[in-house]
Amino acid sequence: MNLELANTLSLWQWLILGLVPPAIVALYFLKLKRRPVEVPSTYLWHRSIEDLHVNTLWQRLRNNLLLFLQLAVVALGMLAVLQPGWRTHVSPGKHVIFLIDRSASMQASDVSPSRLEQAKRQALAEVDQMASGEVGMVIAFSDTAEVRQSFTDSRAELRRAIEGIQPSGRSTSVLEALRVASGLANPSTSGDVDVSQPAALYIFSDGNFDPVTGFALGNLDPVYRPVGLPESENVGIVAMNVRRHESRPDALQAFVRLQNFGSRQAQGDLTLEVDGRAVDYTRFAIAPGESHAVVFNLGVLSSGVLHAHAAAGDVFALDDEAWVAINRPRRTRVLLVTPGNPDLQRGLTTSAVQEIAELTLADPASLEDEAFVQKMATGQFDLVIYDRCGPKQMPQANTLFIGRIPPSGGWEQQERQSVPQIIDIDVSHPLMEWLDLGDVDVVEATPLRVPPGGRILVDSNRGPLLAISPREGFEDLVLAFPLLDHSGEKGMTYATNWVVRRSFPLFVFNVVSYLGGRRLSGAGESYLAGQQVTIESPVPGKTLTVQTPSGHEIALPETTGGKFTFQNTDELGVYTVFSGGEVVHRFAVNLFNAAESDTRVKPRIEIGQTTVAGQAAPRTTRRGIWKLLLIGGLAILLLEWYIYNRRVAV
């Protein structure tokens, strides 16, 4: 606590005030006018000759208390004119909510040791300043919010909650945290807080999130405490993937894209490792705000872990690394249930499909076999194709329905239409890659009504002909017309010429590759932090264990027929999946978030209709003591008057 002075007088005024003490002292040395006094005894002479000491300097100063009291009054008055005081912490109110950002960008090291640790220190300082009777709450947030400590007046519990917040590799969204805070501070949703007083909302963050819209603060009084330096230089890896070489299908290529988020040109080195061994290296120079792509030729590689590392000497290490896990391909298990379809079977037995899938045939009568139904319910197949037939219960697998619709999921058929004309194709979907359906004719079709969340892949002038929709971790693809038609008098006839077009075997390959789970085969598996990962056990019924990049092991509870769901993907790096002690799968989690890599701190944030400017230091107020000084001076003046009058009276 530092003493502050505020000068309120000009120089000439100080000169006049400075003459007052010498004037008081000078008055005490003026020669007194003596008057004759007759006394009956020499015992009484000492009262009459006191004025003789006026001319004795040191004796006069030593023995006169009134002089010192008068000088003290003047000194207190002069000090009061300087208005001495100090800064004290402003109490935020009876209720305080601490929102602490633990997203990826808070691991930047432009402030030591990191932004998150600095935010925790600032929050702890606010806790230490809380007055008796004030209660606080701690909420940690990234793209989700977590209440680390509910309202309490215990500083120890608040400190423990703040100190226990760990960093995350997730992106930033403050909306959920604001909703949690609002639910506890606004009267419409909770009675936990005395709503007659607003709750102070402290947000410790770098402001690296989009403006919050559609939110009313209500009783929340926001205080934004920006953490980090306003300008920070950073170069990050924003994308990395592996693809088949265009001219060599048996070889792979790794693509890495870097971006410069700083205000100066960035230079550095980019190294690529495979299974911990450096295989390639390049230098890069990127202009401010620009990106740079690098291609590495990997050659023939069936499995391995790719690790790219950029060294540019910036403040954010989290986006300097990226990983891709390439798993040894497992042949997709495909079940075709059909009354007979030579063209479809031929498409499923091409060399390209046989390389990635193994086919099992069954007739529609098998759908009544209880053992067969149980086999499909336990996830024995990756893809089930229903040709002009359908099950009573959906299997634990992705499906393709040809000429039928699934028995559940909200699918509906429209009226039968003759000669529908294809007018649009969703070429951005993997199922439709490289397909040209301009020469495809359809005799009859029953256009689809796609359930909510579905996606139309092929549309016609009569309605959707091909669509896909999600279903509890699986996907169902529906074709609105059959390939063969047995309903006519002539027996089996073609319902479309698609089976003789060059696009048909490519479509079948895309179906097996995509719905069979092979679209990542040879192309690596990579997810974003916080993203849910579905893992398939090589042997249904066996449990799996996932080892995180830090070495922590998590046992997975099986959900549906050999399918496991893993959600603890906060850490960046490579996750290893074990079954029976053996490695069966690997996948990588990367940042790949340009918003998090842009580590520049925002000076203000937008919450609803409110703009909250950042406050670099705690809110303080100045407490002055000039009134106390004046009161002290008045008390001394009264004491001087009392002593003087007692002397005169005696």
Provide a short characterization of the protein structure.
This protein is of the alpha+beta class. The chain is built from 14 helices and 37 strands. Helix 5 packs antiparallel against helix 14 and helix 9 (342-348) packs across helix 12 (503-515).
Q: In percent, how much strand structure appears in the residues?
A: 25-35%
Based on CA atoms alone, the radius of gyration comes out at 41 Å
| Superfamily (CATH H level) name of the largest domain | Class I glutamine amidotransferase (GATase) domain
Domains, number: 5
- Give me the number of helical elements: 14
Walkthrough of the structure:
By secondary structure, the chain is α+β, with helices and mostly antiparallel strands. It folds into five domains: 11-87 and 625-649, no CATH class; 91-231 and 601-618, 3-Layer(aba) Sandwich (Rossmann fold), CATH 3.40.50; 246-329 and 592-597, Immunoglobulins (Immunoglobulin-like, Sandwich); 332-515, 3-Layer(aba) Sandwich (Rossmann fold), CATH 3.40.50.880; 530-580. The protein is built from 14 helices and 37 strands. The protein has an eight-stranded mixed beta sheet with strand order 15-14-16-17-25-24-23-20. It has a five-stranded mixed beta sheet with strand order 4-3-2-5-6. A five-stranded mixed beta sheet has the order 28-34-33-30-31, with no helix packed on it. A hairpin with a 2-residue loop joins β9 and β10 (277-286). The longest helix has 24 residues, at 626-649. It is elongated, with a radius of gyration of 41 Å. The two termini are 48 Å apart.
